[in-house]
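Shipment paperwork, digital attachment
Item: protein structure file
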Amino acid sequence: MDAPGEADPFSRLLTRVGRLNYTWTNTESLLIHLIAGLARTDTETALVIFLTLNTTRARVDLVERLSKLERTPPDVRREVLRATKGLMRHSPLRNRYNHCIYAFDRQAGTAQTILMRIADRKDRLKIGETAQIDETALTDVDAAVEALNAVNREIWDIVIRHDFPR
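Attachment content:
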């Protein structure tokens, strides 16, 4: 493995995971505007609702349920559901890198993630799923960041076109 700070796959992954987290958080925060618009409230109230819900899944569930109310125009419903689906499509990748530990093999010059999750199977537990930190991993994170940027723009477009509170 290269010296710290050089462009080894692990260092490059950390930079990308930072970008992924920034992009995710920034995009998730736009749910506040969707909550405000769909619930017909102001952004301050929507912020309290957003912060009261502890998980992305709960926030997305709320937005999706609000969009499914009969009063929501069908075109708005479709747009919102498409945007939330786009956001949640990248949740497994984000969770992988936020809920893992990293292992290094200095002799081989490789690194891997070890997922810190227990999977209950019928008659056994599955613990510590591993994945190599390689070019494929880097490409996957880059693709997720680009896709989340597109979702971000899509949500802003919904907010602006439908005059949701900003």
